[in-house]
Amino acid sequence: MDQSLIEFYDSLSSVDPMELSESVLMKNYGKPSLCFVRGNGAWLYDSDGNAYLDFLSGIAVASLGHSHPKVAAAVSAQAEKLVHVSNLFANEVGPKVAAMLNRLILQGDDSPDGSVFFANSGAEVNEAAIKLARKFGHADGRYEIITALHSFHGRTMGALSATGQRSKQAPFEPLLPGFTHVKWDDVAAIEESITDQTVAVMLEPIQGEGGVVDPGPGYLRSVRELCDRRRLLLIIDEVQTGLGRTGAWFCFQHHGILPDIVTVAKALGSGMPIGACWAKEEVAAAFSAGDHGTTFGGQPLAASAALATIRELIEIDAPARAAELGGLIDKNLGGCEGIRCLSGSGLLRGVYLEQPVAKRVAELCQGKKLIVNPIGENTIRLAPPLVVSSSEVDRACELLAESIREAS
Ligand SMILES: Cc1ncc(COP(=O)(O)O)c(C=O)c1O
After folding, report:
1. How far is the CA of 9 from the centre of ligand 1 (A)?
2. pTM greater than the 0.70 cutoff
3. Tally of domains within the chain
C-alpha cells in the first residue's frame, strides 16, 4: 500500500471544499457562491448550519424535496442488493419504471402502446430521441429535425445541435447537420421549413432554460396536427417539465395531445442520474438490437430511485399539488411592484421583472437565505420542490418581492 496516497486522501477532509473546487474542477460552471452539505425537504444546509429555502430544487430535480426518506430507503436497500448488471441482462427494477412511465404518459389509454429506453441525463435521452427519429426516417432518407429558437435540449453534440441558442453552439462548430431552428410559437414557420428530408419536430412544451416561455394557446395542438398531416414525428422534451411539475403528469397533457416521442429526466430519479426516452410502439420499433445503448442506463440503483420517486409522486398527487401551489405563487406575486408578469405553469414559473436586475435579485434572495435562479437579465426562475408547504411558498414570495423592491 502506498501510504503517501492514503495521507493525501485523508488530508482532503480538512481542505475547504470551495477552494478545492476552484483548484481541481474545470471552469465550465460559474464560480459557486455556496457549498451545501445536507438537504431536507425544501431546505438546504451549508456547513455552518445555515438553512436556505430552496426554490430551485437542483434545477427542477428534487421534486420530492431533498433526501426524501422513501427514496433514500429504496436506494439504500437496492445498493445492498444489486447496483449494476449492464444491459446484457435484465434487472427487476428498470422495467417497472418503464411500465409506470407508459401508464403516466398514456394516462391509462393503452391503445397506442409505448416503450422506453433509459439513459443517465436529459441530454442523453434527447440523443436517443434524435437517433430514434433518424432511424425511423432512414428507409426513406428523412433525417432533418425542426426545433425552436431559444430552445434547450442539452450539451452533448446532438442535443446541442438541436438546441436553438447560437451562443451555446458557436464555440463548438461544426455542429451535427440536419437541424433547422424556427421561431417559437409559430406553426407557419415550422410548415415553411419542412423538406422532403424532414422526419420530426422537437419542442419543449414550455421553454425552460430559454426563460420559462409558454407556448400560445393552440400552438402545440396545431403542431401535432401539422405533424400528422405531413407524416412527421412529434418529439416533446419533458426533461424539465415532466412528472407533475407543471400541474399535469406531463406538460403536453395540458394541450390534449400525445407526442410520438417523449423525453424525461431531471425529476425522475430525485437526483439519481436517470432519464427515459419513451416512444409509441410503432416508432420505438425502429430500434433493433445494437442500434443504441449505454452501460449504465436503467441500472437497478438509479431505477430504484425512479420507482420510489414515481410511487411517492403519485401518493402526494404531485400534479394537483403543483397546480394548487402554483396558484398561490400567482396570488402572492401577481401585481407586486417591479414584476411585469408571471409565466410558466404549476411550480415551474418565470417571474418577469420590469428592470434587468435578475442577477441582483437572486443575490439579495440568497442573502435572505432563499435560493432562486436568474435566467437572463429580466427573469427569475422558480422551481421549488413539489412537497413545499403553502407557508414556505408564502415566505419565499415575501422574500422575493422584498428583494425585487430593493433591487429596483
Ligand atoms: C428541456 C431540457 N432538455 C434537456 C436538458 C438537458 O438535461 P441534462 O442537463 O440532464 O443533460 C435540460 C436541462 O436543463 C432541459 O431543461
Report:
1. 34
2. yes
3. 2
